Amino acid sequence: MITKKTISVVMGAITLMVLVTMPVGAYTFIDIGTGGGGGGSTSGAITSLQLASYWSPIFYQQLNEDDDYDNIGWEADYLTKVDYDGDWKTTNNWENLASKKDSLNAYVYYWHKQTVTHDFLGYAVYHPRDWEDANVYFQNQHENDMEGVFLVIERITNSYGKLILMETMAHLDMHLYTDYQNTASSFWLKSSLDTIEGNVYDSGLGLHHPVVFIEAKNHGMFGVQSYECNLFTFSFSYNRPYVRYYNDNLNVADKPAFSVTPSDTVAANDDCSYNLIDINVLWNKRGDSNVFSSITGMFVDDQIGMDSHVDNIMVVAPPWLWTTSAWWDSIGFLWNSPAKYVDLQVNFPDSYNFYK
Q1: DSSP three-state, residue 325
Q2: Which helix (H) or strand (E) holds 51?
Q3: Across the beta sheet with 162-169, what order do the strands follow?
Q4: Tens digits of residue pLDDT in 183-215
Q5: Structural domain tally of the chain?
Q6: How many Å is the Cα radius of gyration of the chain?
Q7: Per-residue pLDDT tens for 141-184?
Q8: Domain of 224, in residue numbers
Q9: Which of 9, 253, 322, 343 could serve as 105's disulfide partner, Cβ 3.0–4.6 Å?
Q10: Residue 293 forms part of a structural domain
């Protein structure tokens, strides 16, 4: 059975009316947890949280010294949770950074779904603001920011499985990377708009912690240190300040600590542990108009005027609206039918069967 729903997706000043196709019963799906899908247990002894922690990415967050608004410093690039300021009102998260910057402990939202043969893990990273220096590209900045990582794990009996594909979210698009052992040439893409951008970096902390680089200010995520396209250029530098975020299996939500004065040129870095939060915390807020728009499902933010920090409204999507530019009509697949979503993108070898 196929169900379809039309939704509005806002990108800057452009609104797209998208017909979302939701396949039901296309394959045997084991729903993990409640609601959105996270925090339950696998069919074996490993829980969803344990699996998510085992495969948890190492995030290298580049830092920008000054946000050009309230001189917060590096804290404007710290990852945290949506309610970091103590309330569930996303229209004040930009403003509250100045008074609540000591509350920017590190959290990452996760979810887990599976078929009989594969596990699908998602990690959503939140920042209170996305901005440009001196407001150069005004329309590209906004309150609230959420990017993330999607992992496809081949299930193996009595183990945590094997990583076969990683995708990262950057600016309304997904970027694809293969596992450590396979080369990009062993995969065939189904769309010329998609590319395999390389292999997943080894974190040095174990091959089960893929490396993800996060740009300063705009927070796009990439599996490589540098990336260039027609719209933007990204380059991560170890010679500029950064935080290396990791999950320590104890789920400690720490906060970066620097002993030097913030500067864009200083080669300062810090290791910081993040806590994994069940994505259902956000999923269950879908009906809260202080958090999500009842029209688009996007995060709600301010729209105050041209002399304000925000020119766009409702441009930041939660994971259940993520997709890739090559498959705009597949919005909802990554969340509701991750096996279908992956099968749309890549012709895997015959040994991979997502539909068992």
Answers
A1: helix
A2: helix 48-54
A3: 196-199, 174-178, 162-169, 142-154, 118-130, 107-114, 275-278
A4: 554 456 777 667 778 888 877 776 689 999 999
A5: 1
A6: 19
A7: 788 899 999 999 999 988 899 898 999 988 778 888 887 555 55
A8: 29-286
A9: 253
A10: no
CB 139 within 8 A of CB 287: no
Would residue 311 count as lying in a domain? no
Return phi, psi of residue 89, to 5°: -135, 105
Domain-located, residue 49: yes
Which tokens sit at 244? 């290396």
Tokens representing 48 are: 């969803």
Question: Which spans in 76-205 are helix H?
Answer: 97-100
Q: Counting beta carbons within 10 angstroms of the beta carbon of residue 221, is it exposed (0 to 12), middle (13 to 18) or buried (19 or more)?
A: buried
pTM above 0.90, yes or no: no
The CA-based angle 335-338-344, given to 5 degrees, is 120
Residue 206 covered by a domain: yes
Residue 198: which residues within 8 A CB-CB, separation 6 or more? Answer: 177, 178, 184, 223, 224
Residue 13's φ and ψ, nearest 5 degrees, are -90, 5
Note the maximum CA span of the chain.
59
Question: Residue type for 306, please?
Answer: M
Residue 172 tokens read as 């309304």
Give DSSP secondary structure letters for 302-314. ----TTSS---SS
Token pair of 320 as six digits: 């259940």
